[in-house]
């Protein structure tokens, strides 16, 4: 199992009050599986992804990534886990504007101490279909092209788990469809598991399995009309 949540709760302190973000969430994501997490804004999707990506720790319960409980790791070990096992794709991309496309893709490899990072970065840009744009900066790219750079950056180190937070939220329908086809193709090539948060049922339809999140709880077996 690549990812497992065991009765996870996450609370935040706001003005001396405890505000629940997740309440008793349990889920599994298997090797090579694509799971879509569907729900409205504020339902806890981003909190769940942060826990899945070892960027935060649960208040209660356990999160396991390839059998390792994140709560058992110190800060350095959590950083190493994120660098080697997890890729992130964000709605707003978070590409560094002063770096070219290939430099943005190369950055995770450099942070992980990988040798010959530049050739691998160029190869990954080829896989996402924009090898010829390697030396352009983000402001010289379309929205769909920038999202392909972000996907290349997330997958260049061939992580076990890809976390995608509204990956098509800022794209038009044509670009969004192209990005989803790309992710499907890359999953077949790399065998990476994907956990994707989205509010779009059309986007979620490409996944192997859809989970509904409402008010911090997973609603088992609910149909799309219940959103």
Walkthrough of the structure:
The protein has 227 residues and is an alpha/beta fold. The chain has a single domain, classed as Rossmann fold. 33% of the residues lie in helices and 28% in strands. The chain is built from seven helices and ten strands. The chain has helices spanning 45-52, 75-85, 101-111, 117-127, 143-155, 173-190, 201-204, and strands at 3-14, 17-29, 34-38, 60-65, 68-69, 86-90, 161-165, 193-198, 209-214, 217-219. The strands form two sheets. It has a six-stranded mixed beta sheet. It starts with a strand and ends in an 8-residue tail after the last strand.
What's the structural blueprint in terms of helices and strands?
Layout: E1 3-14, E2 17-29, E3 34-38, H1 45-52, E4 60-65, E5 68-69, H2 75-85, E6 86-90, H3 101-111, H4 117-127, H5 143-155, E7 161-165, H6 173-190, E8 193-198, H7 201-204, E9 209-214, E10 217-219
Parallel strand pairs: 3-8, 3-9, 6-7, 7-8
Antiparallel strand pairs: 1-2, 1-4, 4-5, 9-10
Helix pairs in contact: 3-4, 3-5, 4-5, 5-6
């Amino acid at each position: 199992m690549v990812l497992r949540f065991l009765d996870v709760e996450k609370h935040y302190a706001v003005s001396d009050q405890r505000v629940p973000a997740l309440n008793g969430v349990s889920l599994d994501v298997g090797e090579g599986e694509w799971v879509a997490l569907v729900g409205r804004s504020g339902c806890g999707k981003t909190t769940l992804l942060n826990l899945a990506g070892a960027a935060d720790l649960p208040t209660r319960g356990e999160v396991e990534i390839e059998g390792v409980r994140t709560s058992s790791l110190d800060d350095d070990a959590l950083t190493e886990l994120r660098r080697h096992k997890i890729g992130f794709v964000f709605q707003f991309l978070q590409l560094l504007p002063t770096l070219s496309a290939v430099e943005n893709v190369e950055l995770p490899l450099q942070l992980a101490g990988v040798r010959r990072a530049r050739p691998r970065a160029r190869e990954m840009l080829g896989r996402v279909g924009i090898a010829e744009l390697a030396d352009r900066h983000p402001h010289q790219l379309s929205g769909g092209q920038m999202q392909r750079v972000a996907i290349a950056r997330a997958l260049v180190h061939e992580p076990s788990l890809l976390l995608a937070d509204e990956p098509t939220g800022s794209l038009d329908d044509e670009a969004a469809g192209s990005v989803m086809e790309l992710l499907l193709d890359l999953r077949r090539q790399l065998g990476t598991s994907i956990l994707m948060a989205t509010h779009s049922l059309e986007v979620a339809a490409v996944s192997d399995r859809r989970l509904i999140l409402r008010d911090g709880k997973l609603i088992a077996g609910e149909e799309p009309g219940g959103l």
